[in-house]
Amino acid sequence: MKKYLVIAIKWVNVEFIKNEIQSYFNRIMTKQEIDKIRADFPILNQKVYNKQLIYFDNGATTQKPKQVIEAVSNFYSKTNSNIHRGVHFLSEKSTAIYEKSRECVKDFVNAAHVEEIIFTKGTTDGINLIAQVFGEKHFNEGDEVIISEMEHHSNIVPWQLICEKQKAKLKIIPFNDNGELIIEEFDKLLSEKTKIVAVTHVSNSLGTINPIKKIIKKARKFNVPVLIDAAQSIQHFKIDVQELDCDFLVFSGHKIYAETGIGVLYGKKKLLENLPPYQGGGDMIKTVDFEKTTYADLPLKYEAGTNNFVGAISLMVAINYIQTVGFDKIIEHETQLFNYATKKLSSIEGLKIIGTAKNKASVISFVLENIHNYDVGTLLDKMGMALRTGTHCTQPVMKHFNISGTIRASFSFYNTLEEIDLLYNAILRIKNLF
Ligand code: PMP
Fold this sequence. Notes:
single chain; 434 residues; alpha/beta; Aspartate Aminotransferase, domain 1; Aspartate Aminotransferase, domain 2; four-stranded antiparallel beta sheet; 15 helices; binds 4'-deoxy-4'-aminopyridoxal-5'-phosphate
């Protein structure tokens, strides 16, 4: 009996190991796969200053696959017509594709209802929308809003504006010198006065992946809604809004391989239904009379005027594209790039990585001793490399580290290990120049 048990355990283990190995090989991208992906992004295949372009500024905006570029061009060539406004063939077709894009986003983030997906101009627009309508309805003198020290200006200023108007206060969750939120401090800030919590999922300047599930759970105990800024996470890993149980989530199309000027606000239906409208105009009304106007139901209540319907379509195509590549492969490849770059860059004397959290996305911010970040960025540019320099719209983060800015490399699944080697060599050359 024991003998058979041992054989069975061994067999199970062998099967388990075999499955693990198989799943690893399914996840890694082969050279052919990366070449094929890169061929989809025409912009990557060019020289700047006679050097092969290396694009490491994906945190600022991502490049577009030809599938997205062609879909936009085809739409304008064959289908273009305003949405929700006509009975004619083209208008109905445009409307149908626009609403299909909404369905696609709903499935992508696993929202419970399609009405929970509002098309916006981008992350900034979505945060301003919620800050204004939620703040106007719920903030009173002395109420509090909790954000974190690592927020992008887009998740600071809209809250400051509404807090000033309603005489509410902004409370800040600090981070430690690794760039990790100090959760015990969040515990101390949460109270009956808290009206909303708004935090970023991934920091654009530190790369930290925040424990948003934990934050949401804690806020839930006080019945406080949570807004997640997913501008830097939606393109890197699968997000399930129902599993997270977040109340609002925002992101920008241009950071997830779609066009500029389109974004998404996800909001729980019950919450959005009970909030006032934001902007007034066409599409967001049911009836208009000089005495009284009634408003459209969700999602159109928050889509005043002619929305960027072509952008929404580009977002659907971009989502389909990354789903074809597959998040398993994207995560594996980007992790490989990130680990390799972290190891290589930190081996350079005088280079300091800013943001050393345990849990990071594929973003590396760094400074070089005695060389200004703009000088590094300018020299890298002349070598054909696009990296972001400066404060990355996170001045409080720079203040925390007492620095004027950083150089930031942010990776996408179309980047390669060879490109990181070239960055490493370029930094060594810059060091030698100074
Ligand atoms: N939040 C984060 C974390 C970001 O990285 C950005 C863009 N850098 C934004 C908000 C603002 O995004 P957008 O400019 O597309 O509105």
